[in-house]
Amino acid sequence: MKYNPEETTQCLPAGEYYATVARAVEATSKAGNDMIVVSFAVYPPNGEVVEIKEYIVFPATGYKLKRLAQAIGKLDAFATGEFNASDYLGESLTVELTVQESEKFGDQNKIKSFSAKLPGGKSSPAPVTRKPTPPLTQPPLTEDDIPF
Question: Structure pTM?
Fold first, then answer.
């Protein structure tokens, strides 16, 4: 069997991609801090769907929730000070991905920023035309799943 070694990873090249909020789960970090694990369904041009997780830990990285809310037009929901996953699920946006290199874990995508604009810099108030995928299904988070 022959294969292309470059196609054996789920890591996408750095850049902007359409995405939808597929799942959001409240959890507790290993350090005992409140945390929200947001799973994004990211749509590269090849038509596949790639899951990228963002760990929003309070208070250290709570600003990411505000940036996400701003990108999907939900600042009013953010301003309530109470997280409700239903305010975010299925919402479309653009994510800018970077590639984090790691000898231990291999290359991984990290979300650099959230935006309502289309890839390439065009702005659009309309949602992404691709229908969101059904919520990603996976077992509940355990402490082993949380990287910190």
Answer: 0.74
